[in-house]
Amino acid sequence: MIKLAIVEDEARYAETLKSYLKRYETENGEHFQIQVFSDGLDIITDYTASYDIILLDIQMKHLNGMKTAQKIREFDEDVIFIFITSSTQFALEGYLVDALGYVLKPVPYLSFSKLLKKAVERTKKKKEAHYINVVVDGGTMRISLDSVSYMESQLHQLLIHTDKGNYLVPGPMKRMEETLMPYGFSKCHHAYLVNLSHVTGILNNHVQLSSDQQVPLSRTRKKQFMDCLTEYLGG
Q1: Residue 70's closest CA among 52, 58, 53?
Q2: For a pLDDT cut of 70, what percent of the chain falls above it?
Q3: Beta pairing partners, 98
Q4: Strands of 2-7's sheet, edge to edge?
Q5: From residue 213, how far is each of 38, 149, 162, 199, 208 by CA, in Å?
Q6: For 95, which DSSP code?
Q7: Helix (H/G/I), strand (E/B), else coil: 155
Q8: Alpha-carbon separation of residue 120 from 29, 86, 191, 229 (angstroms)
Q9: Looking at the whole model, is its pTM more than 0.85?
Q10: What span, in angstroms and rounded, lies between the C-alpha atoms of 32 and 53?
Q11: Are 37 and 70 part of one and the same domain?
């Protein structure tokens, strides 16, 4: 199932898009979970980073589509945007938020369905990857596990180090360890959980990472960590 949001302040266009989605489901054997918002402010309030595709009207009364997309990108780097617009002048700004494309009003089904097909195919490829949703200031963020190099425990919080930046989130290390062990993560120290795919070497009781950072490798964790790393590397 693909989770999809429509953000459109004109009710008739929202209904048109819903009918197009239903038609696409029938013709292509897909299943969408659809939620409709009448303004950009509505979707960014308590945004949960759970949508796969967002159909976004650019010209809206309170918060326009471009500003809405920019705000969403702060929490969700992977959701797919398709802009619905009455002018190419606005749609061409979509590259700023990595939009897949745009459809001009009045929306023709053929053009819409072709772009939607690309979005669906991209979504299915992304679902083969793995993500975690974490609570951050202002909402929930979806983080690709591939981008995480390591996590470190700081009292009752975790600092997640990724190639996009660092995120401080609430929660115990133990719960995160249990969640991520099946996806190639292992503890090298009681306070550090490492993504084995980012390990480039072991130097002087430290784990060397692809980011050129080093994290400590404790004596009590060394054997278990090396066993996990060896198994991960196929040896």
Answers
A1: 58
A2: 98
A3: none
A4: 32-37, 2-7, 53-57, 80-85, 101-104
A5: 45, 9, 12, 10, 6
A6: G
A7: coil
A8: 12, 24, 39, 35
A9: no
A10: 10
A11: yes
**105, 127, 149 - which closes a domain:** 127
| Segments forming the whole domain that contains residue 187 | 132-232
Q: Are residues 119 and 167 in the same domain?
A: no
The 10 Å Cβ neighbour count of residue 69 is 24
221-226: Cβ within 8 A, 24+ apart: 221/187, 221/188, 221/189, 221/190, 222/188, 224/186, 224/187, 225/186, 225/187, 225/188, 225/194, 226/202
Specify whether 170 is located in the same domain as 204.
yes
Tokens in use for 195?
A: 């993504």
- Rounded to whole angstroms, the Cα distance separating 49 from 143 reads 10
Same domain? 109 vs 163: no
pLDDT tens, 15-28? 999 999 999 999 99
H-only helix segments in the chain: 11-28, 40-44, 65-73, 88-91, 109-127, 173-180, 219-232
Which residues, including other chains, have CB under 8 Å from residue 155's CB and lie 6 or more apart? none
| 235: confidence class by pLDDT, cuts 50, 70, 90 | very low
Bridge partner list, 139: 136
DSSP 100: -
* 152 and 98 belong to one structural domain: no
Last residue of a domain, one of 103, 127, 151: 127
Number of domains into which the chain is organized = 2
Q: What share of the chain is helix, strand, coil (3-state, %, to 5)?
A: 40, 35, 25
Q: Return d(Cα 160, Cα 157) in angstroms, integer.
A: 10
Query: Which residue from 198, 218, 221, 220 is spatially nearest to 208, judged by alpha carbons?
Result: 198
